[in-house]
Amino acid sequence: MAVDRERVRTLVRELLVAIGEEPERPGLRQTPQRVADAYADFFSGVGEDAAAPLARTISVSHGPAPDTVPSGAVMLRDIRFRSMCEHHLLPFAGRAHIAYLPGEQVVGLGALPKVVDVLAARPQVQERLGEQIADTIAGALDCRGVLVVLDAMHQCVTMRGGKQTDASTVTIAARGEYTEPAARAEIIALIGKESA
Length: 196
Fold this sequence. Notes:
CATH superfamily of the largest domain: GTP cyclohydrolase I, C-terminal domain/NADPH-dependent 7-cyano-7-deazaguanine reductase, N-terminal domain
Order of helices and strands: HHEEEEHEHEHEH
Largest sheet: 5 strands, mixed
Shape: elongated
Strand order of the largest sheet: 5-2-3-6-7
Number of domains: 2
Number of helices: 6
Strand content: 25-35%
CATH class of the largest domain: Alpha Beta
Structural class: alpha+beta
CATH architecture of the largest domain: 2-Layer Sandwich
Mean pLDDT: 91
Low-confidence stretches: none
């Protein structure tokens, strides 16, 4: 379901009135439409199938490079994401790190950021976002384990309440073999390692 831009525009105009502003003053005249357009982007993942980017897989043993079968994890670090906190409708943004232990099928690495993008483009909380990413990958791929680490800064923490401007939140979601502490620790160490 697409965002109802007209309704958002009307509601933003009402919000401006409710906070004591004049929605017709020059600086605010286009604000309702701008917010409606932004929300259409921010919430474009509502109703979308997050597993769709994982539908096209490559056979490890019979694919284009059977001599390069991974014996360990496939990991993609530093996937930038942004989402909207469902508690305050304020943004949070950060980096996702995803590792999975392939079975017979792998996906192109570009598919993993697309899963993150779809799930982040909804009203979210970071803990659930990580769990949804892990569930989507574990459910769509023949993999032995999935680990998702999210590290994000939340404007509901940095701009209101305690105003902790440098605080970030880290969450971990694990499936399969990565529920074992030793396997999880190895991947978490690799996430923090500087690239060569």
